[in-house]
Every structure is written in C-alpha cells, then in structure tokens.
Design goal:
six-stranded parallel sheet; DNA Cyclobutane Dipyrimidine Photolyase, subunit A, domain 3; Serine Threonine Protein Phosphatase 5, Tetratricopeptide repeat; FAD; Rossmann fold; 20 helices; alpha/beta
C-alpha cells in the first residue's frame, strides 16, 4: 500500500486523521495552490503565516521519521504527475464550492479517502427526527448534548509504523518563487499555539462578560490557528472543557460547527440567500468603496474597517456592526462584504464567513430578524464608551472627547478635524431597509 498524504487544513501532527489512518509507505505533501494564490496580493499575511507553518510541519514530520514534499502549482497538475505507483490519497474534508470541484478533478487520477477532522462532528450525524437538517442553532446545539457535556472527545493517534517513500523532499518553492514577499506577522501569530491556549485560560472565566468589548483583550486569538488546522477543534474542546466556566467558549466552537453544517446541507447558500428572499440591493460602487476604505463618516465603522485593512483582524462584535451597516444602512448585498472579508481576514473560513454575513443580513439560517438593525453609535457607546479602540485606530481623533463618537455627525461638529459627513442618516436608512425587507418578504 502506497498512499499520498495530502495536508490541506490540518497542518499539525497531533489529532490528525490522515496520520492516524495511513498505512505502510506514505508520501506526505502540501500544495501551495496556484488557483487560490493568484488572486491574493503579494503582501498577504496569510501566505507568510502558512509558509512558515508548513516549514514547521515539515520539521515535525522529520522528527517522526517522515518528511513533507512541498509544491507550488495547480493541484490537478501536481497530482497527475505524482499518481503513478500510488493507491490512493488521504486528506481532510472541505465543503466549499472550490474544494469540491478541485477534489472531483483529482479523483479522475487517484481515489481519495477523506477524513473529517477540521470539525468536531460530521454534518450527517445530527439530523432532526424526520431526517432533515436543523436550520436553527439552539435545537441543533441541544441535539449534541452528549458531546457538549462530555469531559473529553477522543482524538486521533499517530501511526508510528509509517514508512517514508523516497522522494525529492529538499526542493522547496520560496515565497518569491510564488510571487509573494515575506511580511511581518502580528505578534499572536508568532507564538506557539500551546502558549496562546495557556494565555487564554486566564481570560476564560470572564470571557462571556468581556468578549463583546472590542477594546479589551478578551478573545482567544486562536481562530487563525483553528482555520488552518495548527490546532484541532477537538483539542480545544478537550483543553478548555475541564474548566467550569468554559461553556461560553465551547458554544462558540459549535457556532463554527453549525455554519459548516449549513454549508454542507445547503451548498447553494455560499452564493445565494439561504432563505430564498429576492432583494434589490444598492449597486452604488462608490458607497461600497467608502465602506471598504473606512470613509463612511461613522467613527466605529471606519475604525473597524481601517483596522481590518491594516491588520487582517476584526473583533466579532465589530463584524456584526459593519455587516449591519453595509447590508441594512447602505443596503449593499452581503456577498460583496463577504468577498471583501475573504480577501482581508487572516482567519477567513468560507462556512463561518458566509454564515455570519447571512446572519447579519437577515438572509441566512437562524438569522437576525430583518428589523434588527445595529445602531453603530449605540454600539460604540455601549462597547467602547471611552473611545479607546476608535482612538487607537484613527489617530486624528486622539484629542477629541469620546462622546462625539457616539453622536451622529458628532465628530464633524469639531471644526479642527477633517472628517467626512456620515454617508447616511441612521434612522432614515434603517426605516428604508425595514420597508424593503418587508416588501421582499411579501413578494
């Protein structure tokens, strides 16, 4: 038996399904996918992070008597050139549209054995009594009570008997070869994932209280590592489950499960409104560009977007606020916002991003009701009263009284600050959005 072990979003040694289920002789590989990379800017932080992670994985595999062959190109071409002499490919599952089409092409050359270790449960394992999938999170979450209340979840064990196939493991494409430049990473991405997990332990007890305050350092900083599989969701569950106050964090892990579950059972929702609603969106490209650049005239929106553009990160509460503003106040299609986040977010994950955007736009599964429109000024007052986050991003505001941030066009009343007037009247645009949603629902 000769197998190709294709690492994709499982860049780890522990709790790795393909390293557990592989047999006999193996060729571990990683492919820097040209189809994906060609769409990214040359200074994309994710590419530097993945590159360094892949080199680290290679080192870890060598310590286990294996190695990692690293390629750059189109997966179809690479597998076609490798296929002779191999029986099958082992890999982890992916359910987004590109991944499914990619794997369909690969199976023309070699059979693929897929394993499910990027998530805790397979979407087919938890259905309603009538055999149909859940569409609402709470009953879905309750259906997994035996898992969520367990003390631990069984993880995969490394198969120590694997033999490395002789191959050219030393030829490694550089970032420059792939058209990218090495960039400086945020501090949290330079830390070992075990250190991040330990650091979050001290925040866990107050997680539920602090997680909405985007000026506080209250989140886990583990989403990027989870996205690329440096740590598995089962490992996180087992690590934090022993703490009595871990319920809030565990529930967030299962929101991630839920959005993947929705994408699996309703794949059309990646591109269309989950609820089938037909909406005539605002097509004004200038409005969208102002939102992207953080030039809307609303301090919390602009600070959030500028921070995203600079760092590739955005707090979950801020994601909800900027989503509501784009889809409800500007009435721009959620798919445009989702696409922009896909380009910018370090932790971009298709299922979670699509699910969250459809939630905020009131078009998705278990979504916010259409009449729920976040008031950005109320949100900034409640979660950043002293303007700590806003001032940290928009330096021109450092000397301003924070109360101006929470008043519509309040900053603009200061003659010494050059800041554009708010693009829309919050109350009027909210009313117009609700009327349009009512019309769409009744058509």
């Amino acid at each position: 038996m000769k197998q190709i072990l294709w690492f994709r979003r499982d860049l780890r040694i522990e709790d790795n399904a393909i390293l557990s289920n592989a047999k006999d002789e193996v060729l571990p590989i990683f492919i820097f996918d040209k189809n994906i990379l060609d769409k990214l800017p040359k200074d994309d932080k994710r590419v530097t992070f993945i590159y360094e992670t892949v080199l680290s994985l290679k080192k870890q595999l060598k310590e286990k008597g294996l190695d990692l062959a690293i390629f750059y190109g189109k997966p179809k071409d690479i597998i076609k050139n490798l296929k002779d002499g191999f029986d099958e490919i082992l890999c982890s599952c992916d359910f987004d549209d590109y991944a499914k089409n990619r794997d369909k092409q690969i199976e023309e050359f070699l059979p693929m054995k897929r394993f499910y270790d990027s998530f805790i449960t397979h979407p087919n394992e938890h259905l309603k009594n009538d055999g149909t999938p859940y569409k609402v999170f709470t009953p879905y979450y309750k259906s997994m009570n035996m898992i969520t209340t367990s003390s631990s979840i069984e993880t995969y064990k490394f198969n120590e008997s694997l033999k490395k196939i002789e191959f050219d493991y030393e030829t490694i494409p550089s970032l420059e070869d792939m058209g990218f430049e090495k960039v400086e990473l945020p501090e949290f991405l330079t830390k070992n994932v075990c250190i991040l997990m330990e650091e979050f332990t001290s925040k866990l007890e107050e997680y539920q209280e602090n997680r909405d305050f985007f000026f506080k350092d209250g989140t886990s900083k583990l989403s990027v590592h989870l996205r690329f599989g440096i740590v598995s969701p089962k490992q996180l569950f087992n690590y934090y489950r022993k703490y009595n106050y871990s319920e809030g964090f565990i529930r967030e892990l299962f929101w991630r499960e839920f959005y993947n579950y929705i994408l699996y059972h309703f794949p059309y929702s990646q591109f269309d409104n989950f609820n089938g609603m037909s909406i005539k969106w605002n097509e004004n490209e200038d409005d969208f560009i102002k939102w992207c650049e953080g030039n809307t005239g609303v301090p919390i929106i602009d600070a959030a977007m500028r921070h995203l553009n600079e760092t590739g990160t955005m707090h979950n509460r801020l994601r909800m606020i900027v989503c509501s503003f784009l889809t409800k106040n500007l009435f721009i299609d959620w798919k445009k916002g989702e696409g922009y986040f896909a380009l910018k977010l370090l932790d971009y994950e298709c299922s979670s991003n699509v699910g969250s955007w459809q939630w905020g736009a009131s078009t998705g599964a278990d979504a916010a009701p259409y009449f729920r429109v976040f008031n950005p000024y109320t949100q900034s007052l409640k979660f950043d009263k002293d303007g700590i986050f806003i001032k940290s991003v928009i330096k021109d505001f450092e000397s301003l009284s924070p109360r101006l941030f929470h008043i519509e066009n309040g900053v603009q009343s200061n003659l010494f600050v050059d800041y554009p007037k708010s693009m829309v009247d919050i109350s009027l645009s909210r009313k117009m959005a609700i009327d349009r949603f009512k019309e769409a629902k009744n058509v």
